[in-house]
């Protein structure tokens, strides 16, 4: 096969062949490892409970089918067809006329991943610490005071250089581990890590769920989660919550799946594995809901209250305040705690690798650095910033604020821009649909283009506008307006600056000498589809 057919220029191919997953299984496990993260465990159960219980599964599945899977396929198609990280892929997609400015969208996504990587590492460090704390129940009777005062030593909103050793040390260890895995490359590093951690995560969480189901009050917890409130389906906010959950849990629209798909071989199935990834992610979320609410049912039973009276059912409060309190009261608590926090570490670590690979791959392609050098450069800079921002007494507040703006503003805006620019401005929907069908077993029709270019941006625009209005009017968590302006809106400004400035940096090897494969013309399409039919 010629270099043009492979979608690479001859000089690039000669200097350094593009890394690839060793096979379909490696790609699927890595993609699932990216999708299954902290949000599956600490966000989905609470969101489902607060938005109709069992009835929430209906808008959840609708959102998965109409937005989650279509945008996942869009990311796959862009990355696989144009063979690069987000900036490279978008530049090639735009072609000679539009590639230069479309590259900025890729750098916007890379900047999102960079920001998320800085604080996501801190949460993994917390989970690793609490894994150790589980064995002697070090948090004592007042888990909230232990987290906020003893462990994180939370101060007032602002910027502090008063470091917290209990956070700094595990945070540094996590960064060392991340750099080592990324430096080993795609197949020997990321894929191998997922081959180890993902099965361990599933086994550990299954053990945790089975144990939780046999606790006193577990049935009450499951009833609280799954009893349907059908009236909730008439509330538009419930549907928006479903789209939001699907959107944030699949690792879409900020470069991850574009980058991961670019490492697949040219003749590689995309849509079939995509369905496996999407439904595996949702299955784990439901499993997490069962485990979390069975455990919460036990806690309510011990407190002699209903599940509805409990606080801290999502996020940091659920994981680091409510769950430690539960662990302290249950038989075999230390083992249960170790399983839970160990699961958080493994789920978070595999997701973190995917987030940082977005940045590392973009650096490699822009500068010509090897995977090892790019990983070390990225890791050192990120580790310094992460430690300065999130291992101090102001770390929790900075993390909470940055996370809210990066996800609710940055990622949603990125998804809207991608859908509108690719489908409406550049009219690439037909080409990308052809590409998916040319290499995949599960074919997508024109309805896919409608979902990506029509329904998804409408829903996401509503989400983005309502969130911006709420933040401007109500602020966030009672934090001072000046602080939110610097940390929250400053994060968005950073993303925009990256999108404008980084395309101006010269490429070590220009990515424009590129021919997408397979070519989109009637003769090539007929030949390729005939070969697929003969192969089956």
UniProtKB/TrEMBL annotation:
The lineage of its organism: Bacteria, Bacillati, Actinomycetota, Actinomycetes, Micrococcales. The keyword DNA damage does not apply. It is a multi-pass membrane protein. Its main location: membrane. Signal peptide: none annotated. Keywords: Membrane, Transmembrane, Transmembrane helix, Transport. It comes from Microbacterium aurantiacum. This is Transporter. GO terms for cellular component: membrane. The chain crosses the membrane at residues 21-42, 54-74, 107-133, 167-187, 194-214, 238-263, 275-301, 335-363, 375-399, 405-426, 447-471, 483-505. CDD domains: SLC6sbd_u1 (cd10334). It comes from the Bacteria. The keyword tRNA processing does not apply. It is found in: Membrane. SUPFAM superfamilies: SNF-like.
